[in-house]
Design a protein that fits this description.
Chain B: It holds the Pfam family RsbRD_N. The complex is a heterodimer of chains A (133) and B (287). Chain A is an alpha+beta fold and 133 residues long. Helix content of chain A is 39%, strand content 31%. In chain B, helix 9 links the parallel strand 4 and strand 5. Classes of the chains: A alpha+beta (133), B alpha/beta (287).
């Protein structure tokens, strides 16, 4: 059971579009209202990070299932400068972009699975999964 | 071949000039029929005559077609504004080919017929150009409209003497927040209000950017001596804000607009009493 959508992230309006598509998919999977809002917010944070720090990238929205329950997997990939210090980037309040510094660390708390893969000069890939309860 | 080609081209030019009235009339007929009576024939005829003459000038003067392109861009802009589709606009230009072809056929000249191939390419280029300018014009209209919408969608309303409210609906991006902040601060000055309620019931998700914008707006209002209450925090939003780790500090937040209004009224010293007849009696304490 895979149902994937790929969207580009190149402008602020794309962030809005990503948010809308994630919400629609979250409803399909049957996430509760609170979980829908959480995954939509995480998608918003990660999409904006892709835009602000890497100048753009792509997101893949997948409906996944492991038999017992359904879930939503989001993969944000960019070919930006990458993150030199992953631990520092995941620290609350740390920002290089003038924001609140909670986007990445907060997103990790909003989802069930969080995988951050980045190499300076090679780009960044963030994969998150939210399972339906 | 080139010499031959040039001669054919010259023949077409002469034909276009000699048969101007006839071609123009036919062009207007064909284009008018394609537009399905939606176009104003008088105005369209005048515009097409100008384009035709610019086309003749452009043909005889070689590569300089600034005039012609300017006229075509103007035509596209008007068509876009009047709600014609891009194909309508391109067909309008392309239909000149049909009119010219009929004239050539009637003249029974092979040289002109050969030159027609070249003329056809020339018109295709023009049609493509109109198509492009049409799209640009349409994009301009959309940008203008979204700017107008930005203004429309952020009203500042007065709830009570000294209490303002800003109901936010939809996506809160940087541009939008800028407008909200400016309008709110301006309204605070104009009305001399000391309380403002920012209602986010209509905002679907509050992420760190939205939160940061809200915090900045509240801080700016505070600098002007006004207190802001953020209302419309629904359970799922509260959950998300806490999980994200956003601190609202000492900013007063309420779940509903009515709670926020009650809070603001209390703060400004207005007492509400519920009588037996359920009529709300209001008294203001003068400090």
């Amino acid at each position: 059971m895979t149902d994937a959508i790929e969207l580009p992230i190149a402008a602020n309006s794309d962030v809005v579009l990503v948010r809308q598509r994630v919400r629609t998919s979250a409803q399909q999977v049957g996430l509760s209202l609170v979980d829908q809002t959480k995954v939509v917010t995480a998608a918003s944070e990660l999409a904006r990070n892709t835009l602000v720090y890497a100048g753009g990238g792509r997101v893949r929205i997948e409906v996944v299932g492991n038999g017992a329950r359904g879930g939503l997997r989001l993969t944000f990939a960019d070919e930006g400068p990458g993150i030199p210090d992953l631990e520092l980037a995941l620290t609350d309040g740390w920002t290089t972009g003038g924001g609140l510094g909670l986007g990445l660390s907060g997103s990790r708390r909003l989802v069930d699975e969080f995988d951050l893969d980045s190499e300076p000069g090679k780009g960044t890939r963030v994969t998150v999964v939210k399972w339906a309860r | 071949m080139t010499v031959h080609g040039d001669a054919d081209r010259l023949r077409i030019e002469t034909l276009l000039r000699e048969q101007e009235e006839r071609i123009l009339k036919r062009w207007l007929d064909i284009a008018g029929a394609a537009a399905g009576g939606r176009a104003d024939h008088g105005v369209l005829g005048g515009r097409m005559r100008e384009i035709y003459q610019a086309m003749l000038r452009s043909l005889s003067e070689g590569d300089d077609s600034t005039d012609l392109r300017g006229l075509l861009a103007e035509l596209s802009r008007i068509q876009a504004r009047e709600g014609f589709t891009p194909s309508d606009t391109a067909v309008l230009v392309l239909s000149v080919k049909e009119a010219v072809y009929e004239t050539i056929e009637a003249s029974e000249e092979t040289a002109a017929l050969r030159g027609y191939i070249w003329f056809s390419k020339f018109v295709d280029d023009l049609a493509l150009y109109t198509f492009e300018t049409y799209v640009t014009a349409r994009e301009k209209i959309i940008t203008d409209q979204s700017e107008q919408l930005l203004e429309l969608s952020t009203p500042v309303v007065k709830l009570w003497e000294g209490i303002l409210a800003v109901p936010l609906v939809g996506t809160l991006d940087s541009a939008r927040t800028q407008v909200v902040m400016e309008k709110l601060l301006q309204a605070l000055v104009e009305t001399g209000s000391e309380h403002a309620v920012i209602d986010i019931t209509g905002v679907p998700a509050v992420d760190t950017q939205v939160a940061q914008h809200l915090l900045k707006t509240v801080a700016a209002a505070r600098l002007m001596g006004a207190e802001c209450v953020v209302s419309g925090i629904r359970p799922q939003i509260a959950h998300t804000i806490v999980t994200l780790g956003i601190e609202f500090g000492d900013i007063v937040t309420k779940s509903s607009l009515s709670d926020a209004l009650a809070h603001a009224l209390r703060q400004s010293g207005v007492q509400l009493t519920q009588g037996a007849s359920k009529r709300v009696v209001v008294a203001t304490e003068r400090a």
